[in-house]
Amino acid sequence: MANRPKGYGFTAEVRGKLAAKYDLEKEQEARLWIEAVIGEPVDSSVPATEVLGMERFHAALKDGILLCKLADVITGPGKVKFNKMKVPFKQMENINNFLVAIEKYGVAKTDLFQTVDLYENQNLWQVVCTIHALGRKAQTIGFQGPCLGPREAAKNVREFTEDQLQAGQTVIGLQMGTNKVASQKGMSFGNTRHIADIRCDDVSKEGQSMIGLQMGSNQGASQAGQNFGKSRGILGPDQ
Question: What are the TM regions of this chain, as residue ranges (predicted)?
Fold first, then answer.
């Protein structure tokens, strides 16, 4: 990681946003839970010169050994193997073993981090989120050790018989309004149904001879002196 460029431009902007999202309180909760489960301090192998916080947490987990120990205790002794060799490909293999083990255990794939997120410190916040997801899943499955975070909600699958499904097709949902007081009484077959209960005979005819203001006015309009077929002259303002 020391030889990896820090990035610039858009890459630096993305790394800055990820760093701003990092929650030290959640990291501390994950750290204490790991220590309680495996029975040893998380950063015992980290040099005292390493700064506290995100960099120290990354240095403690980078080789994947502590994560493999954590998964081994939760999923069952002897199920998760790890290698103590201090070479990059072995350390990344340890991280991958951890990810494979907890996915088989039931942690959703969308909750898992990528190997480079931890090994190259690309997204350590996602590593913290994965540890919390493992803690929630452990409670759901029945792990009797220390707890981390709230218990996951259990599925509540509903099953309906074919008769129940068919019965629902006769119900009109509220989104469709209501069919109460609807009636076809007095309607002839094929006759148009009126939306409003108003008969044409009942409509007043007084307004039919009136021109609305939106149409202008016909006051003073006249065809006097005009011959049939002759164009009607438009008078200018000074005529």
Answer: none
